[in-house]
Amino acid sequence: FTMSQLLILLALVLTAAHAQDTTSLPCHTNEHARGCHATFGLDIAYQGLFDPLCSVHSLCYSCGADYGHTKTSCDQAFRGDLDTACQDLADPDPCRFHADNVYRLMIRVIGTSFFHAQYHTEPFCIEHWVPGCLPSTGETTTAALVGK
Predict the structure, then answer these.
(1) Options 28, 32, 57, 69, the catalytic residue
(2) Most CB atoms closer than 10 Å: which of 100, 139, 141, 146?
(3) pLDDT tens string 131-148
């Protein structure tokens, strides 16, 4: 790890805030949804808020190519979801700070080599639940996660 990567990891673990319980959300409960645990299993700040968004991002990396997504479109949807998740909090600034760190860690450090190109996707990507867990064109996936 470089020093900047270690600093990002450190920033993620310094503050632990508990948001809503997201364990019952459909895209989060599937065995293939990795949440933010791809961050080496660290307990990160706002993990309850970010986990379902990390799961959708992880699923987009695994299956997105089958449904017309690129790494860039997965990353853009993830960024939008993180921003949306923080905006409704009473004090969104700490959340935004940690969202920026989660985004950088997931995209630049961990995710660089994990996007599955077309024809190299996971076998579970054809299962019926997958399309509903992926970003829609021009939308973020937060509404799908909470069953709206």
Answers:
(1) 57
(2) 141
(3) 888 887 544 444 344 333
